[in-house]
From TrEMBL:
<feature type="region of interest" description="Disordered">
    <location>
        <begin position="203"/>
        <end position="222"/>
    </location>
</feature>
<dbReference type="InterPro" id="IPR011576">
    <property type="entry name" value="Pyridox_Oxase_N"/>
</dbReference>
<dbReference type="Pfam" id="PF01243">
    <property type="entry name" value="PNPOx_N"/>
</dbReference>
<dbReference type="InterPro" id="IPR024029">
    <property type="entry name" value="Pyridox_Oxase_FMN-dep"/>
</dbReference>
<feature type="compositionally biased region" description="Low complexity">
    <location>
        <begin position="211"/>
        <end position="222"/>
    </location>
</feature>
<feature type="region of interest" description="Disordered">
    <location>
        <begin position="168"/>
        <end position="190"/>
    </location>
</feature>
<dbReference type="InterPro" id="IPR012349">
    <property type="entry name" value="Split_barrel_FMN-bd"/>
</dbReference>
<feature type="compositionally biased region" description="Basic and acidic residues">
    <location>
        <begin position="178"/>
        <end position="190"/>
    </location>
</feature>
<feature type="domain" description="Pyridoxamine 5'-phosphate oxidase N-terminal">
    <location>
        <begin position="34"/>
        <end position="150"/>
    </location>
</feature>
<protein>
    <recommendedName>
        <fullName>Pyridoxamine 5'-phosphate oxidase N-terminal domain-containing protein</fullName>
    </recommendedName>
</protein>
Length: 222
C-alpha cells in the first residue's frame, strides 16, 4: 500500500483547511449549542485507554438527555446496560473524550471535545430520572472545544433517506446473538428477549437512590 506517514504527505493529498474552518472551534457553549443539546436524543462518545486502545459508544435518551451545567460543563446519564463499560474504563486511565451529537433528520452534527470524569452525585442523578428510573452514574465533561461538523458524510450516505434503508440486509439482532454470543439458546427465546422484553427493560425501577456521600464521612449508617 502507498501509505501516508507524515502530516506533510497528508496535506499534499487533502490540502489545507480554509481559515474559517481551521479556527471555528470554540471553548464554550453558546445559546445555539444549548438549543442543539436540548433537542438531541443521541450522541457517540469516543474514548481511548492509557495504552492507546479506543472505543466509541452510543448514548441515547429522550431529547435533552445531556444536562448543561454551565457554558463549559455538560453531563450525560449512564443507565443499565451490558456492563462492559469499555468507554468508562478508558476514562479512568485517560480522561480525554470526543462526542458527536445528532439531530434526527439533520445532516450536520455538533462536536464536543474535553475531559471527562465519572460521578454519582445524588442531586445530579435526580435531574436525569426518566420514567421513574434513575441513572447509575453520570459522565461529566469539562469542555475544551466545540464546533459544528459539515453535512457531507450524512448527505453522501443518505442516512436519513428512508428510501435507502435496508434493515434486513444483515441478520437480525437475535440471529447475530445466537451465532456469535449465545449459541446454546433457542432462536425463539432470543427473539422474545430482544423484542418486548428488551424494550420493557430500558428504564428499570430502582428501589433506593444512591447517596453521593461516601461511607464514613458523616452519613448516618444502618
Amino acid at each position: 500500500m502507498d501509505e501516508i506517514t507524515t502530516e506533510a504527505q497528508l496535506r499534499e493529498v487533502i490540502g489545507e483547511p480554509l481559515p474559517r474552518v481551521a479556527t471555528k472551534d470554540r471553548p464554550r457553549l453558546d445559546d445555539i449549542d444549548r438549543q442543539w443539546l436540548a433537542a438531541s436524543p443521541f450522541c457517540l462518545v469516543a474514548t481511548s485507554h492509557g495504552d492507546g486502545s479506543c472505543d466509541v459508544s452510543p448514548k441515547g435518551d429522550p431529547p435533552g438527555f445531556t444536562v448543561v451545567l454551565d457554558d463549559r460543563t455538560i453531563a450525560l446519564p449512564e443507565r443499565a446496560g451490558n456492563r462492559r463499560a469499555d468507554g468508562f474504563r478508558n476514562i479512568l486511565t485517560n480522561p480525554h473524550v470526543g462526542l458527536v451529537y445528532l439531530l434526527p433528520g439533520r445532516d450536520d452534527t455538533f462536536r464536543v471535545q474535553g475531559r471527562a470524569r465519572l460521578v454519582r452525585d445524588a442531586d445530579l442523578l435526580d435531574r436525569m430520572v426518566v420514567e421513574g428510573s434513575r441513572p447509575l452514574l453520570a459522565m461529566v465533561v469539562e469542555i475544551e472545544s466545540v464546533f459544528y461538523h459539515c453535512a457531507k458524510a450524512f448527505m453522501r450516505s443518505r442516512l436519513w433517506d428512508a428510501g435507502t434503508w435496508t434493515p434486513d440486509a444483515a441478520p437480525s439482532r437475535p440471529r447475530i446473538a445466537q451465532r456469535q454470543e449465545r449459541p446454546d439458546e433457542p432462536l425463539e427465546e432470543l427473539e422474545r428477549y430482544y423484542g418486548e422484553q428488551y424494550a420493557a427493560g430500558l428504564y428499570p425501577a430502582q428501589a433506593q437512590p444512591r447517596s453521593s456521600t461516601p461511607p464514613g464521612t458523616g452519613a448516618s449508617g444502618s
